[in-house]
Amino acid sequence: MTEIPKSHPRYESLLARECISKGVKEGLTSLQGLIAQGRGEAFDYLIGERTTPSANAATMVAAAMLLLARQPAISVNGNVAALVPAGMVELAKAIDAPLEVNLFHRTEERASKIAVLLRSLGALLVLGEQPDQRIPGLEHSRAAATSGGIFDADVVLIPLEDGDRCEALVRMGKKVIAIDLNPLSRTSRMATVTIVDNILRAVPNLVFSAVELSKSSPENWKSLIKEYDNNSTLRQAVNEILNHLNCQFS
Ligand code: PTJ
Question: What are phi and psi of 2, to 5 degrees?
Fold first, then answer.
């Protein structure tokens, strides 16, 4: 990894690039993951590289939904494994959910490497190496899913997901929580709850929210969910981008 001095004004962003490149070199992340990270970075610039009020609100609702879930599951792909592997393990423990390796550009070797990494960080249950089900309406290996994991879950967290798969999961009747910096993506529009934030900020925020919310009553969680509207969250995210851009040269 290239040594990035902490004093560099773009330290965090450069470090994320290093994590993704290292992920590719170690066989965790796909080459396409580099491009996805670039697109994410561009949107992060537009939102001002901060957690916006709309992202914070969506995160609280997502935490409530995960706590209320009968059977939650968390999807992990090659970018997620490179950027926030320990955070995903912590989140899985906080909400008592399995982690399922779920790859768009699936290879068995990459699925296994990611599962090994998650277990080495203390994950209690990692699925996805031997999928035994298929998500209806999707072709090829992208449809792979596991019983007891994403396939049976009522609430699924899908960070950095493909729009098609998000839509297919919603069609199965699941509540789908997306983490995606692009508020215009199909994933963002199709999901039940979209956290428009960098996964590097969103995951610790989600862990914190789940731990804090778990101290309050399920009635409180239900009322947070009842008041939530994903369309207005996305509209707010776009307005936050516009306001941020307008402030740049004033
Ligand atoms: O490991 P695999 O094979 O499952 O592949 C994973 C990727 C991410 C390559 C694959 O799912 C893919 O191509 O995704 P897309 O369609 O490029 O969508 C990724 C979305 O995540 C885009 O809308 C990006 O803006 C967004 N994104 C990228 N980096 C981040 C991000 N959102 C939050 N935090 C990021 N760091």
Answer: -70, 135
Q: What is the pLDDT of residues 198-209, one digit of tens each?
A: 999 999 999 999
| Ligand 1 binding pocket includes 180 (Cβ within 6 Å) | yes
If one counts every other C-beta atom within 10 angstroms of the C-beta of residue 78, the result is 29
Max CA pair span of the chain = 56
Q: Is the CB of 32 under 6 A from ligand 1?
A: yes
pLDDT for the residue numbered 139: 87
Q: 30: Cβ below 6 Å to ligand 1?
A: yes
d(CA 11, CA 192): 33
Distance of CA 21 to the CA centre of its chain: 19
Q: What is the pLDDT of residue 159?
A: 98
HSE, CB side, 13 Å, CA atoms: give it for residue 62: 34
DSSP β-ladder status, 133-134 and 144-145: antiparallel
- Average pLDDT along the chain, 250 residues, taken 10 residues at a time: 76 88 98 97 96 98 98 98 98 97 96 98 98 94 94 98 96 98 98 98 98 97 97 98 90
Cα torsion through 246, 190, 152, 219, rounded to 10: 60
| Inter-residue contact 18 to 10 (CB < 8 Å) | no
Q: 75, 157 in Cβ contact below 8 A? A: yes
- Which of 160, 169, 185, 206 most suits a substitution to test ligand 1, by most atoms within 8 Å of the C-beta? 160
